[in-house]
Amino acid sequence: TASPLLLVHGVWACVRSCPPSCVCTPERSCSVRCDRAGLGQIPSQFPCEASSINLDKNSIKFLSERAFGTLPSLKSLSLNHNNISFITPGAFKGLPSLTELKMAHNEYIRYLHTRTFTALRRLVRLDLADCNLFNIPDRIFIELPALQELFCFQNNFRRIPGAIRGMENLTHVYLERNRIEAVAYNSLQGLTKLKYLNLQDNKINVIHERAFQGCQRMEYLYLNDNLIAELPENSFDGLRRLKMLNLGGNFLRNISNTWFRDLGELEFLYLDRNRISYIEEGAFENLTSLVALHLNSNNLTTLPFSVFEPVYFLGRLYLFRNPWECDCRLEWLKEWMENYRLVRDIPCASPSSVAGIDLTDVLFERSPEGFCLDPEELNVTSERPTPSEEPWSTTESKFNSLISKLLLQMGLPEEVANATEVYSNSTQPDGQTEGVSSGVGEERSEADSCSLHLPRAVPVLL
C-alpha cells in the first residue's frame, strides 16, 4: 500500500492540475468531471494521475493528434454528446491504460480513419452509438486485441462491419437500429467468444446458410423487427449455448422443424408479431429447457397437441391476438390452461357461436360415445325448426336489428320483422369452415343493395 505521504501528494497533484471549468475528485483515484462545462475544445492539460475524464455534453468539434497528452493512469474517457466531426489519426496516443472509450451521440462523425484508435491495446469497451457512421474501415480494430464490447447501434450501416471479423475477444456487439440488409455467411467469421449480438430493428431480409456457425458461444441473439420472411434450414445450427432467440416482428409464415434442433439450452423464444399460420410437427421437439414461448400476434387458428407436446410443461406460453378456431383441436389447450394457469387471454374468432368468448369459457359437449363435439357454426339457412340456442355474436345481433328495421320500412308487420334470423359462414360437409368474411356470408354481396331478397337471405318464420 502507498504511504500517507504519497497519498497526500497524489491528492494535491490531482487538484492542482485540474482544468478550468472542471471538477477533480481525488478520493481513491483522480476523477476529472468536465461535463456540461461549455467547452469548445479539449483542455490543454489534465492531472497526470487522472484515472477517468468525463467531457460529455460540450461543444467539442475536433480531436488533434495526442489530444489528451500523456496520461498513463487513464482508464475511462467519455466524449458523449459533443459536436465532434473529425478525429485525427493517433488522437488517443499517450493513453496506454485506457480500457473504456465512449463517443456516442456525436452526429457529425461520418468517417473514421483506419488508425483512429491506434495504440489502445488495452481497450475493452468502445461506444460509437448514434454517430451517423455509414461504414468503418475493415482494419480499424486491428490494434485493439483486447476489445470485448462494441456499441455501434443507431448508425447508418448497410452491412455488418467487416472490421469485427476475426476479433476473437469480442463478447458483445450492439448493431441495432441501423440499415443492415443481410447476415452473410462470413459476416461473423472468427467471433469465437461472442455471447451477445443485437441486430434488431434493421432491414435484414436475408440470412445466409450457417451465418452463425462460428459463434458457438452465443447466448443472446436479437433478430426482431426486421424483414425476415424465410430462414435457411440450418440457420441456428451449432448455437448449443443459446439462451434467448428473438425473431419477433418479422414476416415469417411457417415454423420449420429444423430451425431449433440444436437449441437444447434455449430458455426464451420470441416468435411474436409475425404472420405465422402453420407450425411443423417437431418444431419445438428439442427445446427441453424452454421457459417462455411467445406466439402472440400471428395468424394461428389452431395449435395441435402433436406440435406442442415436447414443451407441454414450459413456464409461460403467450398466444393472444391470434384468430383462434375454438373447436375440439384446442380442447387439450383449454385443459392445460385450467390445470397449470400459465397461459390466458385466448379469445375465439370462430366458430361464430363462441366468437369473442375466451377459450377457457368454451363448453365442449360430448357425443353419446364420449367424443368431443365442436361448437356449432351459427347458420340460419339450415332447416332447423327453431333458432339455435347458442348465443349470437354482437355482429349478428346488429345485423338482425338492421334487417328488422328494413322490413318495418317495407310495411311488414312488426312480429314478422322480429322473427328474422341471420346466417353466418356455411359449414362444409367435412366439418371445416370457410374463411371468416363479414360475418354474414360472401353470397350476400348482391343482396346489399336496396332490393332485399327475402326468400334467400332472411327466412321468415310464420
Features:
24 strands, 462 residues, disordered N terminus, two-stranded parallel ribbon, alpha/beta, 14-stranded mixed beta sheet, single chain, elongated, disordered C terminus
Explain what this protein looks like in three dimensions.
This protein has 462 residues and is an alpha/beta fold. The chain has a domain at 381-457. Helices cover 11% and strands 14% of the residues. The protein has helices at residues 4-16, 305-308, 331-340, 394-409, 414-417, 454-457, and strands spanning 23-25, 30-33, 50-54, 62-63, 76-78, 86-87, 100-102, 125-127, 149-151, 172-174, 182-183, 196-198, 206-207, 220-222, 244-246, 254-255, 268-270, 278-279, 292-294, 316-318, 324-325, 348-350, 365-366, 372-373. The strands form six sheets. A 14-stranded mixed β-sheet has the order 1-2-3-5-7-8-9-10-12-14-15-17-19-20. A hairpin with a 5-residue loop joins strand 23 (365-366) and strand 24. The chain is elongated. Keywords: Leucine-rich repeat, Repeat, Signal. Residues 421-436 have a biased composition (Polar residues). Pfam families: LRR_8 (PF13855).
